[in-house]
Design a protein that fits this description.
heterodimer; A: Aldehyde Oxidoreductase, domain 4; Aldehyde Oxidoreductase, domain 4; seven-stranded mixed sheet; B: Ubiquitin-like (UB roll); DNA polymerase, domain 1; 2 domains; globular
Chain lengths: 717, 154
């Protein structure tokens, strides 16, 4: 029997189903209860988990040199997923690390993934399923080798050996002609203490290529067989504008224009080079029918934490009476719109193959969604479209759908040529899917023991994930579980209420690194600091006094650890004028983060000399890679805390390039100290949690330094 | 007309005169190591050396190049297959995440190291502050430049 597994596309599923919330439909009087249950489920359960093809030969191939090629479904956007997934598979297949190569699967070839890449879930979600698949394959290969050699074998360094000195490589075993049958019961996974690769900081597989100019990003893609042409697309002056009439006369006469494509509400050109394509688009005259032009106030007024449409997420005890008494305090927090702006603007290469399949190379975190968008745009069946993600020059949630894939495919079909279309930076800003703005109203009271008696958090946010879901899901769930991420309280409080209001904004908002985590943690962890001050207690001790239970113990350990690292007790007492220390923590997708920020204030300038961060994310597959994620999240958190903000004026976002939207720069970056706590728990999320506490820790430090409580991002003195 | 990139001469057409160096390098000469980030000189992803000076190729039209300009791109950092100390240091400290800004970071850093073989933290921060890294690898970039300085001196 010859091996032809690649196209077999059998779908045994290994692992867990995709989280959909499990919410029953049509029981309106149970709705409040169900919504609280759903919130609890999602806030504890984390993101969609691994759900993978159970055919090992789709995932694992061996070369003649006995290298292991792993075809993975998760995309590599700098978070190190390819390397960490390689580590999982290599461990169970007993392949030496230097013999491992990782490749990106497309939607038509190789394994599939019903989810995509996001939610800090690539490694934690596949930790068991991918290892299980590899272990099962190891079992199948071992059986084949034993049968072939007619003796008992041991697998070591990618080679089977028996006691007579006979050897068979994994590759040789994989090529044996036999009926390959998956074991009826799962093969035993390696135990943690025998791990040789998992838990080691092996160098990331993509780093050397990224430093030596290898073509690996979407913007680098060219047709391998034919000359590549370049496309550009006319974009409306504001989102939602409709094309009225189009005059292409001037553009037609430009040299090196190949074709102009006119469709319903779509104008594109194909040219011999990129700059000509853009020139041609600018030369096309279009009358646009403008929608109502959005002003920032239009957005602001829709954010209403007190709305009677707010959904109750959680209720413990009865907070109402305690919050009425004179000892209660209240505060309002807010966070602005922010841009995602990965540094590589999106781009796509589309080429119709001789086999009638539209091949698209594109930077997408969700290849299935992008495939559907392309297929719809060009009238193809989805099984005639292959979307293979490239390496991403940043994702951060923006690459859910790569719009350029659709645009390139339309131009490729219409011109009959391979077309590459690259977005400009201003396209990225003007047509971003922004982080939604939020408002938060918090109330709390302290009892005679100096602990929190009652706590209430009412939050209002634009959509994060609802924009991607069918309307019915939104009306049942009531609140957007992306927007509420991070709102749950980690402290033991006898009377607690959490509410979320979904503000239906007239602009496109969506996933941004960590979703609601940053905004909600900013509000919660700042307000807890306010309560500590109100109770006249040390912010660290106050937090410790409210922690109990299993997770509480983990948070306590992390807080104590970061306090020790940062010399909290001493430095916090230091009375150096204009300097201060702030602490904050969060629990996100099972990962605990505790951070201390040191701030120095000089007139109206806020500078951050040092940040200390502790993370407990269970077993860490690649510690150095995880530390890099924490460092990056700290910079993201600081950028949001100090700089990043988008406003709307006459329908247009306030930035169309970095001149109007400044990212944190190296001279503003702190010295960073990161430690990962050892843990017996399985891997938890790594890519986002450490973004959570930073803005609150900084605001708390500013309060310590100046006595000023700042409740609005970006923080200004 | 011709341009000199990484000590090789390339012929261009007259119509390329008004084109930006970045797109000539990437789309015409296939030197894709020089990256596009903003097209306006803010982010530094497109940084190359022109006669030894760190220059934003995205805002440099071909017709503005000095006569006989020597252009060096990230592809020119490697000689005879040997990685430049800055590349070695960035690998050693596993600096990049997404990596898109890294060519520009290294091209700016090498001009600093050429001028100041043992740069101070302040020099590093001042020189590198116009090279954005959206992933936030600044901590490692700083340390890698310090490491490269020691490799260079060996």
């Amino acid at each position: 029997m010859t091996k032809n597994w690649k196209l077999s596309r059998r779908k045994f599923l290994i692992g867990f189903g995709t989280v959909t919330g499990g919410i029953a439909v049509g029981i309106p009087f149970l709705l409040p209860y169900l919504r609280r249950q759903a919130f609890q489920f999602l806030s504890q359960g984390g993101p969609p988990s691994g759900n993978i093809d159970g055919d090992p030969q789709l995932w694992f191939e061996f070369t003649n040199q006995n290298l292991l090629h792993i075809n993975v479904t998760k995309v590599e956007m700098g978070q190190g997923a390819h390397t960490a997934l390689g580590q999982l598979a290599a461990e169970e297949l007993e392949v030496p690390w230097e013999n491992v190569r990782v490749f990106q699967a497309g939607t038509l070839l190789g394994p599939t993934d019903s989810f995509g890449t996001g939610g800090s879930s690539s490694v934690s979600g596949l930790f068991i399923p991918l290892r299980q698949l590899a272990a099962n394959y190891r079992f199948m290969l071992t059986e084949a080798a034993q049968e072939h050699l007619n003796s008992t074998v041991i697998l070591k360094n990618g080679v089977f050996a028996d006691t007579n000195g006979n050897e068979l490589t994994l590759n040789e075993a994989s090529l044996l002609e036999r009926e390959w049958i998956a074991p009826e019961t799962d093969a035993t996974l390696k135990s943690k203490k025998t791990f040789k690769i998992i838990g080691k900081s092996v160098p990331r597989l993509d780093i050397e290529s990224k430093l030596t100019a290898k073509p690996m990003y979407s913007y680098d893609m060219k047709s391998s067989k034919n000359r590549t042409y370049y496309g550009a697309v006319a974009r409306p002056p504001v989102v939602g504008a409709e094309m009225q009439d189009v005059d292409t006369n001037q553009a037609k006469n430009l040299e090196s224009i190949i074709s102009i494509v006119l469709q319903d509400n779509f104008v594109g050109v194909v040219a011999e080079d990129r700059e000509t394509a853009l020139d041609a688009i600018r030369a096309i005259k279009i009358n646009w029918k403008l929608p109502k032009l959005i002003e920032n106030d239009d957005i602001d007024l829709l954010l209403d934490p007190d709305s009677n449409k707010a959904v109750e997420l959680k209720r413990v005890g009865d907070s109402s009476s305690s919050l009425q008494n004179s000892n209660a305090i209240s505060a309002e927090y807010s966070t602005p719109l922010a841009a995602t702006v990965p540094l590589e603007p999106q781009s796509s290469l589309a080429e119709l193959g001789d086999d009638g399949i539209m091949y698209v190379r594109t930077p997408t975190q969700f290849p299935n969604q992008t495939t559907a968008a392309v297929a719809e745009a060009i009238g193809f069946d989805e099984n005639k479209v292959d979307v293979t993600p490239t390496y991403l020059g940043g994702g951060f949630g923006r690459r859910q759908i790569a719009e350029s894939a659709r645009e390139a495919a339309i131009l490729a079909i219409e011109s009959g040529l391979p077309v590459h279309i690259g977005w400009t930076r201003s396209d990225e800003f003007l047509f971003d899917r922004f982080r939604p703005p939020t408002k938060h109203k918090l109330r709390g009271s302290i009892n005679s023991n100096g602990t929190i008696e009652a706590y209430e958090h009412r939050q209002s946010s634009g959509d994060v994930l609802f924009s991607q879901l069918p309307a019915i899901a939104g009306s049942i769930a009531g609140s957007d579980f992306g927007a509420t991420r991070g709102i749950d309280i980690i402290y033991n409080i006898p009377n607690l209420k959490l509410y979320a209001h979904r503000a239906k904004l007239p602009i496109e908002t969506s996933a941004w690194r960590g979703l609601g985590l940053l905004a909600n943690t900013f509000a919660n962890e700042s307000f807890v600091d306010e309560l500590a001050f109100h109770a006249n207690q040390d912010p660290l001790q106050f937090r410790l006094d409210h922690l109990s239970g299993e997770t509480g113990t983990l948070v306590r350990n992390a807080l104590l650890h970061v306090a020790k690292m940062s010399n909290w007790n001493e430095l916090q007492q230091s009375t150096k004028e204009g300097s201060g220390m702030g602490i904050a923590c969060c629990v996100d997708y099972g990962t605990i983060v505790a951070q201390v920020v040191q701030v120095e204030i000089n007139r109206d300038t806020i500078s951050v000399p040092k940040v200390w961060s502790v993370m407990d994310s269970g077993l860490v597959v690649n510690p150095n890679g995880a530390k890099n994620q924490v460092e990056g999240n700290i910079i993201w958190g600081l950028g949001s805390a100090l700089k990043e903000e988008i406003t709307f004026n006459k329908g247009i976002p306030s930035a169309k390039n970095f001149g109007d939207y400044q990212l944190l720069t190296i001279d503003e970056s702190p010295e960073i100290f990161v430690e990962l706590l050892p843990s017996d728990r399985p891997p938890q999320g790594v890519g986002e949690p450490a973004i959570g506490p930073i803005p609150a820790a900084l605001a708390n430090a500013i309060f310590a330094a100046t006595g000023k409580r700042i409740r609005k991002l970006p923080l200004t003195i | 007309m011709e341009i000199n990139v990484n000590d090789k001469r390339f012929s261009l057409q007259d119509s390329d005169q008004n084109r930006k160096l970045l797109w000539i390098l990437r789309d015409k000469l296939g030197l894709i190591g020089t990256r596009y980030g903003c097209g306006a000189g803010y982010c530094g992803a497109c940084t190359v050396h022109i006669n030894g000076q760190a220059t934003r190729s995205c805002v440099t039209p071909i017709n503005s190049l000095p006569p006989n300009a020597k252009i060096v791109t990230v592809e020119g950092l490697t000689s005879d297959g040997k990685l430049h100390p800055i590349q070695q240091a960035f690998i050693e400290l596993q600096v990049p995440q997404c990596g898109w800004c890294m060519s520009g970071q290294m091209m700016t850093a090498t001009t600093l190291l050429n001028k100041s073989p043992n740069p101070s933290r302040t020099e590093i921060r001042n020189t590198m502050k116009n090279n954005y890294c959206r992933c936030g690898c600044y901590h490692r970039i700083t340390k890698a430049i310090e490491l490269a300085a020691t490799l260079k001196n060996d």
